[in-house]
């Protein structure tokens, strides 16, 4: 099995930390709050946990920061709850644990590991929440890094402005990862248990190039290309790098769920995402992508890349990005009985 | 409720880290390994988890380092296991999580919080392991810091060489903490579940002054007194500081278990502790006490205190300490049915 790509959000509590630069993701959670409450009220069968002693919740791809705790507060209104905060082992769990307030109404635990792998025992979870996480692929599709493949993504680091072959490779990788993700979660979630997924994505009718987040990622790509032109980074470094993220539509998620067969779709809707100001957006991009970019290009380029180039490009392109749609996908799945 | 004292072991992987300076504690675990295997084989009723999906293990006061993982390997030989590593929120969980090897045969989770508080849902654990942790008291007994009390521990930071009143105050605090610890764990452990406790302690017939670890702590005390005499620290700082640790005997643990009433004693024995060389012992003391001492006296005294003074005193007193007994307490308790 290929090693899962590791790229946690920026740790700590400093200027470039994810904790301080995740208003965008926070808004997604706030928008989903009412929807999750409604889903729990209407879709959760209380019988699934009457035989067990406690209600077990997992937050997959929790990262670090107040969003993590906010998401969980949304769903805890009853006594004995155990909440598992999951993210990769390299996530800043120290920061997360010390920011848990005293006297929380649940038992907290941290679970290190990629959600592209098994994380919990069989039938041990009642509710899974994952916000702004499952858009991260388990890896960059092999073909886009293969010089001999028609899907080689030469000179680019993102798929949205690229060839149909590159786009297809990312689309397929997302479908494969989603299928695997649901297979794993189907083992961990009790029959009748719910899974709420919030994903940054695009509207069904919107092509990749017109989705706001793709436009934002294209500014990162174009900034890296500028840096290569100026000789700050080598061009081959761009050829060998791709951001392992894909922005799906509800249609794609629906197909993946149906193909997988372990879950029924209970709720599925788009939630509007506010588009942040260029400065805020470049910080958001930095907090999320810094780890991945640093690993490949080194950390000396980060300040110029995000704080100057990406920020300027976002400002320059604000008229274009304004017309782009920014949406989240909100999907609630229920674990079907085993056949 | 009084706030529980927070003093995690030194984090990271550096020179003074707990991870690199815990051979002493490691030996305790190795010595207990066979005993724990035997306890599980003979004392664990397989029926207690046949109805559940997985066997849930908690390691309380896990700290950071390979000991944590070693202790757990000792008890995992079957398929679906979930292991909860617990220590205070300020423990270095990042270091712990990144040191978990790939392909471990269990699902790992970290649980932040003091074991003097509730950590898990009702009836959610099958086996609890706690090594070299429960000797830490929830707080320094109030009286020993109270100038108006006959138990005021003026001019000292440890109890073993002090007045009977001080000794009694620590003895009572240990009894109270043990009772509370068992009340909490009795809620968390299923009926029939086991709890293995390993504590550094002393033989039943040995007075506190003749226990090796007390002698070692007295060298820390006497080094601090030397520093106060030299004007490096203020004398009042010594009056207002006590190490919140108590070395009990099996007799004391037995009384606490019987008074508490929730557990039966399945195994209870002394395990021999090897006495480390002075240099190793001063590093062991530093890794364990540094956090507590730094908080009160500041970090500028640490090098001189441990690496020079304590180390020299341990060397000078090696003839005395050689005659002292160093033992661990090994106790396996079983959760009794509710009456």
From TrEMBL, chains A, B:
One Pfam family matching this protein: Methyltransf_7
Key word Coiled coil present: no
GO biological process, one term: methylation
Keywords: Magnesium, Metal-binding, Methyltransferase, Transferase
InterPro entries named among the record's database cross-references: MeTrfase_7 (IPR005299), MeTrfase_capping (IPR042086), SAM-dependent_MTases_sf (IPR029063)
Highest taxon of source: Eukaryota
One Gene Ontology MF term: methyltransferase activity
Protein name as annotated: Putative S-adenosylmethionine-dependent methyltransferase
Organism expressing this protein natively: Morus notabilis
């Amino acid at each position: 099995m290929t090693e899962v790509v590791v790229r946690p959000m920026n740790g700590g509590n400093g200027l470039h930390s994810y904790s301080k630069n995740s208003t965008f993701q926070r808004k997604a959670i706030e928008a989903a709050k009412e929807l999750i409450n409604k889903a729990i009220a209407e879709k959760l069968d209380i019988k699934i946990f009457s035989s067990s002693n406690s209600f077990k919740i997992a937050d997959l791809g929790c990262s670090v920061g107040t969003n993590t705790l906010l998401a969980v507060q949304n769903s805890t209104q009853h006594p004995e709850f155990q909440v598992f905060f999951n993210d990769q082992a390299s996530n800043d769990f120290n920061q997360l644990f010390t920011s848990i307030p005293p006297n929380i109404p649940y038992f907290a635990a941290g679970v290190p590991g990629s959600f592209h792998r098994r994380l919990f025992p069989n039938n041990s979870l009642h509710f899974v929440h994952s916000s702004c996480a499952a858009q991260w692929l388990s890896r960059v599709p092999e073909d886009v890094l293969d010089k001999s493949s028609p899907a080689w993504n030469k000179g680019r680091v993102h798929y949205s402005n690229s060839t149909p072959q590159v786009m297809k490779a990312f689309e397929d990788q997302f479908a494969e990862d989603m299928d695997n993700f649901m297979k794993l979660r189907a083992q961990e979630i009790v029959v009748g248990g719910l899974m709420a997924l919030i994903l940054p994505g695009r509207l069904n009718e919107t092509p990749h190039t017109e989705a706001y987040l793709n436009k934002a990622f294209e500014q990162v790509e174009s900034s890296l290309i500028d840096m290569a032109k100026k000789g700050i980074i080598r061009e081959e470094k761009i050829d060998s790098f791709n951001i392992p993220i894909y922005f799906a539509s509800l249609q794609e998620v629906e197909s993946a769920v149906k193909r997988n067969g372990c879950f029924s779709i209970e709720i599925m809707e788009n939630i509007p995402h506010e588009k942040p100001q260029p400065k805020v957006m470049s910080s958001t991009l930095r907090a999320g992508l810094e780890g991945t970019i640093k690993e490949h290009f080194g950390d000396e380029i980060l300040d110029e890349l995000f704080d100057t180039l990406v920020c300027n490009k976002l400002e320059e392109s604000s008229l274009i990005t304004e017309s782009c749609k920014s949406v989240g996908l909100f999907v609630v799945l229920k674990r079907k009985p085993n056949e």
